[in-house]
Design a protein that fits this description.
The protein has about 500 residues and is mainly α. The protein contains 20 helices and 13 strands. The protein starts with 5 loop residues before the first strand and ends in a 5-residue tail after the last helix.
Length: about 500
């Protein structure tokens, strides 16, 4: 296909954007940028009954958070405006009428009661999936079964109607999917979908096709859940005479539950203790539903994590910048099978990106957390603490809690830790360390480390046997970041104070 690459992400403003939708948007963006094309966003709000206020703003903020830059959207100038389907309403009827006039669609005047009766008849006849189709439509109240004069009277009287596509009874519909290869469906499995609703609004099926055509969309990259609708869309392109300019299709694999058993839902995410929305969302009952951003995930980590859910670069590389993803991305490397949503992998990505952040940036995050705990700290000290802790946290909002021992000396010690880590040898090292540190005129990690090694070597002790106990009386824990660097950050006076306090409290534990 020799044409400009133009892709679109077309969410409905019916609530919070699912994280799977973010992945779809990301794949569209990566493909557009890789091919030197454009990405536009269209709001598909034809279902006004499900419209949710603020959902559109949420979509905008979510895409911006992960770094997706749109070329055309409702929020910026563009040659294909408007980008909200509700604002494009007047143009759809002409295409529906074209189909009616050419015998490819028809008016249907059936009431909801009559439709229910039809379904009951089908169920009584043991039909598995009752539908308004090439078989049942001959029994219904529509312009195919009613006399032409009666149809005209009903239309003139303003009787409610919908316009349905007339699906051929015996026809094979086939198309090539860029991920799945050739897809073939028999028209007998399709129903006569509504194209125009009784309120004059188009359904997704008609509006989607018309807009993609008018906006010159070259590739439709969307979730696997839309694969069953694809044959109908192919038929519409054919009926409208747009088959030659029809976009190429790529249906993405589903995001699966962590165990791989079924599509990921909010309930599954709640059960496993992780979000399913990119940003926090106010639920129907007024409660705030958690989002990945508010849980502490970095946008770069989410982009990397989502990109790898269904796509593989074919190498061992796992960490990518957005530019690297754009360079490596291709639809051919997307898997056909669903991708398990492994939240532990998402955490791993977050930890990798957090480690790469400058100490000064993480220091600011730490200061924010300390402020909520009414703990004062200089920016320089916060940066040093962040440097020590960033290898040991998954989220930056964990820094403040992990840093508490820098500001609060341990007052009690674990009985088990004391039993296993405190000994006469440890006490000897601690006392000598206290004595020698007290005499230092300068104070650094290197100087304290040299003193500690000197004491331990003179006594013929093993570092791993005695230093965990020293760490315990200084920090309250028996493991953690580099102890000498911790000592330097704590400062000479604080270290002396903690050594004295720890030795005093634990000396009695050595007396039988």
């Amino acid at each position: 296909m020799n044409r400009e690459v133009r892709v679109r992400f077309a969410p409905s403003p019916t609530g919070a954007l699912h994280i799977g939708g973010v992945r779809t948007a990301l794949y569209n963006y990566l493909f557009a940028r890789k091919m030197g094309g454009k990405m536009l966003l269209r709001i598909e709000d034809t279902d006004q009954n499900r419209f949710v206020e603020f959902a559109e703003k949420y979509i905008q903020e979510a895409l911006a958070w992960v770094g997706i830059k749109l070329d055309e959207s409702p929020w910026q100038e563009g040659p294909n405006a408007p980008y909200r389907q509700s604002e494009r309403k007047p143009m759809y009827m002409q295409y529906a009428m074209q189909l009616v006039n050419e015998g490819k669609a028809y008016y249907a005047f059936d009431t909801s009661e009559e439709l229910d009766e039809m379904r009951k008849r089908m169920e009584a006849a043991k039909v598995v999936s009752p539908a308004y189709n090439s078989i049942t439509r001959v029994q219904m109240k529509n312009s195919l079964t009613l006399p032409e004069d009666e149809v005209k009277v009903k239309l003139a009287a303003g009787e409610p109607y919908v316009i349905r596509i007339k699906v051929p009874r015996k026809e094979e519909i086939r198309f090539h999917d860029l991920i799945r290869g050739w897809v073939m469906v028999h028209s007998s499995t399709l129903d006569d979908k509504v194209l125009m609703k009784s309120d004059g609004m188009p359904t997704y099926h008609l509006a989607n096709i018309v807009d993609d055509h008018l906006m010159n969309i070259s590739h439709v990259i969307r979730g696997e859940e839309w694969l069953p609708s694809a044959p109908l869309h192919i038929l519409l392109y054919k009926y409208l005479g747009w088959e030659d300019s029809m976009p190429e299709f790529a249906h993405l694999p589903l995001l699966l539950k962590p165990d791989g058993n079924g599509k990921l839902s909010k309930r599954d995410a709640d059960m496993h203790g992780f979000p399913v929305f990119p940003l926090e969302w106010k639920g129907e009952n007024g409660d705030m539903v958690r989002g990945f951003r508010e849980d502490g995930y970095l946008p770069e980590a989410m982009v990397n994590f989502l990109a790898m859910l269904g796509w593989n670069p074919g190498t061992n590389q796992e960490l990518f910048t957005m530019d690297e993803l754009i360079k490596e991305f291709s639809l051919e490397k997307i898997s056909k099978s669903g991708a398990k949503f492994d939240i532990n992998k998402a955490k791993w990505f977050n930890q990798q990106y957090l480690k790469q952040m400058p100490d000064e940036v993480l220091g600011e995050k730490l200061l924010q957390g300390l402020k909520t705990r009414n703990i004062e700290c200089s920016s320089d000290k916060a940066s040093k603490i962040a440097h020590l802790l960033k290898e040991r946290v998954v989220f930056d909002n964990e820094l403040a809690q992990e840093a508490i021992f820098f500001f609060e000396a341990p007052q009690v010690f674990s009985e088990e830790a004391v039993k296993t880590k405190w000994s006469t040898d440890t006490e000897f090292v601690a006392k000598n360390l206290l004595e020698k540190i007290s005499k230092l005129s300068s104070f650094s990690a290197a100087e304290v480390k040299a003193i500690a090694h000197e004491i331990i070597e003179e006594k013929g002790l093993k570092l791993g046997k005695v230093m965990p106990g020293v760490r315990m009386i200084l920090t309250g824990a028996t493991s953690g970041p580099d102890l000498m660097e911790i000592i330097e950050v704590l400062g000479k006076e604080e270290v002396i104070s903690r050594l004295k306090n720890g030795i005093e409290k634990l000396s009695a534990s050595l007396v039988n």
